[in-house]
UniProtKB/TrEMBL annotation:
Protein name according to UniProt: tRNA(Ile)-lysidine synthase
EC number per UniProt: 6.3.4.19
Top EC class for this record: ligase
GO cellular component, one term: cytoplasm
Organism from which the protein derives: Methylobacterium variabile
NCBIfam families: lysidine_TilS_N
A Gene Ontology biological process term: tRNA modification
Subcellular location as annotated: Cytoplasm
Record's catalysed reaction(s): cytidine(34) in tRNA(Ile2) + L-lysine + ATP = lysidine(34) in tRNA(Ile2) + AMP + diphosphate + H(+)
Residue ranges occupied by any tRNA(Ile)-lysidine/2-thiocytidine synthase N-terminal domain in the UniProt entry: 31-206
Length: 349
């Protein structure tokens, strides 16, 4: 039995990666996202020695945010060559935003990885997110006011612009990947931003050992995410089916989304609010990135559960806006469409 902080051996590594890159996999090629840190270096090393059944290519995204980033990417290229893997450095070029830099870097990273995967004929991108990353994500989303959808954390597999993004190490503690690199002598780099207290994730990372002393371990946070993910899958399926069932024609022919009011009001609130979230995304996809149910629920819950749903139950009228979408309750219907443009204020005169 493997130790909770011990290195991953060749057979265990091959087993973790077999569904993704092993013989008989459904994928035709994979890009390994490798920054040079211990997590992604372990991913690269385990993949190289794990009898892959499809072509593998290593990609390092150089965000150009630190003087050492180019040298770190070159070091990854050298190790990839030693392991018999192809490598490409992907540069994030152009101006960088002054605010929300980490979010912009993350979006650029996935965009570059997806584009490169298509270039090399791969349909799978693998990242080395760990159990510790999952715990940090749950804490960050809790602090941001996320609902169950956000607290479900990162999924082991999700869509990436028509490709598949996989996280084979999501249930593996980071300590094991660090130990794997040390045992194999694989050189790693350490990004100073991971401990930079200017960033929220780094501050929460410092709290994890203290929370663990009280019993709130990374493993328990990750298991919470797994339970919520199962619950969310069931609720999402129920909400999607209800949305289809409740759709009604737009009598004005304006392309608005119209839902049956009494039917929506009769649903359990946990399903009804998800129907509302899906409807908001469908009514104005540009307002909700990815066209997905929003993670931050405060305004949706406050507006829909506190005002719109009671109006549907009482048969009264109510008009409110969420994420650029106008929700209008009245006449036995809930109608959703883009928020009308605001009229410019007239100068006093």
């Amino acid at each position: 039995m493997s130790r909770p902080d011990g290195p991953i051996g060749p057979e265990e590594g091959a087993a973790l990666l077999a569904p993704w890159i092993g013989p008989g996999t459904a994928y035709r090629g994979a890009v390994l996202a490798v920054s040079g840190g211990p997590d992604s270096t372990a991913l690269m090393g385990c993949a190289a020695r794990g009898r892959p059944g499809i072509p593998l290519t290593v990609a390092t995204v150089d965000h150009g945010l630190r003087p050492a980033s180019a040298a770190e990417a070159a070091a990854v290229a050298g190790l990839a060559a030693d392991l018999g893997l192809r490598h490409r450095t992907l540069a994030w070029t152009g101006p960088k935003p002054a605010a929300r830099l980490q979010e912009a870097a993350r979006a650029a990273r996935y965009r570059l990885l997806a584009s490169f995967a298509r270039e090399v004929g791969a349909d799978l991108v693998l990242t080395a997110h760990t159990l510790d990353d999952q715990a940090e994500t749950v804490l960050m989303r809790l602090c941001a006011g996320s609902g169950p959808t956000g607290l479900a954390g990162m999924a082991p597999v999700r869509d990436l612009d028509g490709l598949t993004l996989g996280r084979p190490f999501l249930a593996v503690p980071k300590a094991r990947l660090v130990a794997t690199c040390a045992a194999q002598g694989w050189p790693v780099v350490h990004d100073p931003s991971n401990t930079d207290a200017r960033f929220g994730r780094a501050r929460l990372r410092r709290l994890l050992p203290l929370l663990a002393e009280e019993g709130l371990t990374a493993g328990r946070l990750a298991r919470l995410a797994g339970r919520l993910r199962r619950d969310e899958a069931a609720l999402a399926a129920a909400a999607a089916a209800a949305l289809d069932d409740l759709r009604r024609p737009d009598s004005r022919g304006e392309g608005r989304l119209v839902l049956d009011g009494p039917g929506l009001a009769g649903l359990p609130e946990a399903v009804a609010v998800r129907v509302a979230g899906l409807a908001v995304a469908a009514a104005a996809p540009a307002a909700v990135p990815g066209g997905a149910y929003p993670r931050r629920l405060e305004r949706l819950e406050r507006v829909f559960l506190g005002e719109v749903l009671p109006a549907l139950r009482d048969g009264t009228t109510r008009r409110r806006t969420v994420a650029g979408v106008l929700l209008a309750a009245g006449g036995g219907r809930l109608t959703l469409g883009p928020e009308p443009p605001r009229r410019p204020r007239q100068p006093p005169g």
